[in-house]
Design a protein that fits this description.
Four copies of one chain form a homotetramer. Helices cover 25% and strands 34% of the residues of chain A. With 140 residues, chain A is α+β, with helices and mostly antiparallel strands. In chain A, 39% of the residues are buried. Chains in contact: A-B, A-C, A-D, B-C, B-D, C-D. At the A-C interface, helix 1 and strand 3 of A face helix 1 and strand 3 of C. Strand 3 of chain A pairs antiparallel with strand 3 of chain C, so a sheet runs across the interface.
């Protein structure tokens, strides 16, 4: 089951062509990723990082940029997980705008790491329950 | 009368010392500035820029950085105007965190410009009414 | 034949884990992409955008993040093209650090657009000559 | 005696008005600030941070934005110090473009801190010699 969040395209995302500069679309995706943890697993990403000392950096990304994002657009993100490995998680992102137009899709493999050493570690059980509820076989 | 908004310190604000990198505090201030227009003047900043072709770039800034912002902190912004000139507006920002600690203050002079030419222009009357309601003599 | 450029990991790339935040790796790639035009085609990217009104936004990206980038590291970028279509160009990026460690690889499909309309257009002949010199069959 | 560096306005600095977005001007200033250490004091800022565990976050900034920065412009930075306190340093920045036009001035007070605790500390003697050579009474 996917989670859904909405954020506006803010001024800082724009480039000289007056559309979102593509590295900032990844940054937007990360903001949604941060929001997902509380809803999926009942723990905020700041707490996961600051207190539990666990993070999920990306190791592989595939993305399609389908339509530009303009200032004031609403980005509606649909986010789900399609693989929960021992140490890795695969996230899927679908971004639409307020008119239902597909903007961006991305599949991102992230690895669970200890934030002090950055070494991979097994995804803890207290996260698995929530993650499995957002596992979907839907293909991006 | 000031307006107030709250936003979290997100991951992308952090630097290698695990606190907000100072240029991104200005970016955060701009996000609050964008939000202010709808509340102060009843028109969103995207509409002001995209439709009315008016923007307010800064020409002078003074800022004090009082305490660091950490991942997951809530930034509570208090924003008011203390001068409405013919073509310029002076904005005041106070940032506190969720513990009431003062983080940042800034006074920013912005100039009303035509977004096509970037030439200064007189602040239109349809903005003045709302702006005057948020005029305060409070000294930063 | 690939082109090669080197840039340091600057402070603004870092995140709270003291390594480069991944959206800023795409931004670094774009900086190298900008540099490539002058060397490949004899025209700077600013001139291409500002004067010739042509740009190359991305439509598809695949990337592998192999090792973290740390403050002060040198990023040595090796960049080549492996497909020149009528309207699209496929770029390949290999990033190593000063110790020869592989950091990042990416394949990025970009489309030639008119910068005013953002509509796709045929890649002009004055760019094809230079681009073809940097065409390589090397597989990423 | 001031130090001088030049950097181009790159694509990522631009906003929807096709000029540099002001928070990124502070980021540009920080890039020049990083470069200054090696030239002023014979130690790179990465080494200062990573090895010596000393950094210089800002606590107060005043800036005037005089003219916009456009894609492809060269920014010529003139940087000097006008106060060396026990624990603080005051930096002055003058930015001109390739046509000699004044773009931006800024005075920034930074505090010497231990990078682990972020507590202020006395500026070490091995930095003072170099800093004093770049002390100037010139008023911004």
């Amino acid at each position: 089951m996917a989670v859904t969040f909405t954020r506006p395209v803010e001024y800082s995302m724009l480039d000289g062509a007056n559309i979102a500069y593509y590295p900032r679309i990844y940054d937007l995706a990360h903001k949604f990723f941060e929001q997902s943890w509380l809803e999926m697993c009942g723990i905020s990403y700041p707490d996961l990082i600051n207190i539990n000392k666990i993070g999920f950096p990306v190791v592989n990304i595939e993305s399609d940029f389908s339509a530009p994002m303009r200032f004031g657009d609403e980005v509606i993100a649909t986010i789900w997980i399609d693989n929960i490995g021992t140490k890795s998680l695969t996230w899927n992102y679908l971004f639409h705008n307020q008119n239902g137009e597909l903007l961006w899709t991305s599949k991102q493999v992230t690895v669970c790491v200890d934030m002090d050493s950055l070494n991979p570690q097994i995804i803890p059980d207290y996260l698995r329950v929530g993650l499995q509820k957002h596992l979907s076989e839907e293909i991006l």
